[in-house]
Amino acid sequence: MRITLDGTPLLGRRTGIGTYVARVLDALPAAVRRADVDARLEVMTWSLRGGRVRGLPDGVRQVGPPVPARVLREAWARWDVPPVEALVGRTSLVHGTNFVSPPTRHAREVVTVHDLAYVHLPQTVSADAARYRTLVPRALARGAHVLVPSGATAAAVREHYALDPERVSVTPLGVDPGWSDARPPGEAWRRDHGLPEEYVLFVGTLEPRKNLARLLAAHRALRADVPGTPTLVLAGQAGSDAAAGAGADVVRTGWLEDAELRALVAGARAVLLPSLDEGFGLPVLEAFAAGRPVLAGDVPALREVGGPHATYADPYDVTALAGALQDVLDADDGDTARAARAAWAARFTWDATADATLAAYRRVLA
């Protein structure tokens, strides 16, 4: 079988979805060998400029011409043309890794729906993401099989789109082993980035769904009551909340390379993810792998991923967030607590993600 994945999220600076695509693609060749199946893996990208993916795993090739994503999405939102075979040739299955599944002539379709923010929180998403309200139903009407990163997201997708359970497969994300070896940044690095020795950390794109306005208000409120509350650091590329984070008690690092981000997480007093909605919440597990405590928004996916090891708060309640921030700063952070967090994170591997993904492909093609 020939499997074609959308590798567009691999281009440029990688966000969470880019990490997902990269790690699944890295792990799929070994999953194919473990399953002893005859499968050829390839990636396509939708971009006129800079569309070549570097560092593909051995045996994985890139196919297809340079075509702008915006043009394709506009066409696919209205018609089932062009089919993917017109762009990449004959294939057995196409996997739309980022909400968008190309129409096909004969190939089977699989689409990853990472979350339903475009449905439940439309005011927080970009214009491109808002198009998923049209593009996802069109793929489902063609019979696309859905991959989701958590049981919570699976339940939400099945309910919203009235799908039979067998049309949705859960493929939980994994944690890179390097997170368990992360060590706090050195003094020189912190000085160069304007960071104090003690800080709490938000990791993610600066966008409304991440609930930064309430996080900032909660942090300010706690610092007013407890002046020694650590500085808040925002690590992530600017999104539609690019103006977030002005103030003497907040530091923005911008986008960081993987090694820098891991060190920053390892040195944090706590990692904060008070999102209004998440499909999974990978920063929670990455923080746990580095041994760090987490404050998370009390939403189903984060409850599922964080389990008993995170501190939760109503993401819409600033007072609750401030109280939870104090709780997580006061919580046990000894060796036993750190080891328990790391052990929880170690249950999630990219090999398991790839195995579950390949199993879904095989069910679709059976």
UniProtKB/TrEMBL annotation:
SUPFAM superfamilies: UDP-Glycosyltransferase/glycogen phosphorylase. GO terms for molecular function: transferase activity. Pfam families: Glyco_transf_4 (PF13439), Glycos_transf_1 (PF00534). Residues 16-177 form the Glycosyltransferase subfamily 4-like N-terminal domain. Keywords: Glycosyltransferase, Transferase. InterPro entries: Glyco_trans_1, Glyco_trans_4-like_N. It comes from the Bacteria. The keyword Glycosyltransferase applies. Residues 189-332 form the Glycosyl transferase family domain. This is Glycosyl transferase. It comes from Cellulomonas phragmiteti.
